[in-house]
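User: My collaborator sent over this chain with a note saying "see what the structure looks like." That's all I know about it. Can you take a look?
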Amino acid sequence: MKTLQVSLGDRSYPIYIGGDLLSQATLLKEHIKGKNVLVVTNTTVAPLYLQSILNALPDYHCESVILPDGEQYKTLEILNQVFTKLLEEKFSRQVTLIALGGGVVGDMTGFAAACYQRGVPFIQIPTTLLSQVDSSVGGKTAVNHALGKNMIGAFYQPQCVIADTLTLTTLDDRQLSSGLAEVIKYGLINDPDFFDWLEQNMPKLIARDQTLLAEAIERSCQDKADVVASDELEQGVRALLNLGHTFGHAIETGMGYGNWLHGEAIAVGMLMAADLSQRMGWMQESDVARIKALFVTAGLPVLAPKGMTSEQFMTLMSVDKKVRDGHIRLVLLRGIGQAIISDDYAVTKLADTLEFFER
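Assistant: Without extra context I'll predict from the sequence alone. Here is the result:
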């Protein structure tokens, strides 16, 4: 087991990475506050892992909420099921919520924990690659709205993150590829050596080499933990973690939540950001080709969805947390491993990129 630390003063917490961690009851108990527990999971994960969590906590009053599975259910309406269960059980502030599932479950559980009685503890147990390397770390919690993704939420840190790599054995190939998009993102933002490593090892990662997957998860979590520690509330450098997300969130919203997986949309979004960067003269065409080739090897899409127009992209991109005074700020690249936040791009070049990706 590897242990990393997210250093945030009195809100600091560990990230545990390793195989068969769900069977280690003492690891979980160490971070539970009080004797009441609510496990939030979904219809896919519950049959696989819920009973293991409940069996590990025989001395606790444990209840569970099983939500429908899918990005389209990441709404205030579905979130209300969590609040209803908490209130039905008359749970006080001495309850600990456990998020058992992927990014949707983690985001919703964290948001519920931030809101219930103005804040109760919660634990992240991510069961997808994407949630293990990204959404479970850093305290971003949210639900979606029909007009914009993750626009309703809060910064709220967990007590710990327990990333059991054995849960990835039950992950389907499409979800694995989706998670690899966020892994690649860290190489593109500020870790060119990691990008090189991914180019060399992507076939083995796709083949689910457990040692290499654990290394990729550890390196991704360390990169993210370092950024979060320096900018918890995304006032500056943390926004770099949104590389490709302004384009990608537009795809997710435009196509209807759940039709494109998050990582699939972000992969295309990152390629669009690279394309615009190259058009601005900030990036070599050969580097854009390397990025595209790595996405293809990872089983990710490299074209925007059929039917999405430039006008639709612009409308949806304008509903973004990085918009300032009506201007869309983007995370772009000055090379592999050199991400920047910029509004100093030519709008005509952005239009060229959007038109280039239309199909």
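A starting point for your reply to your collaborator: The longest strand covers residues 148-155.
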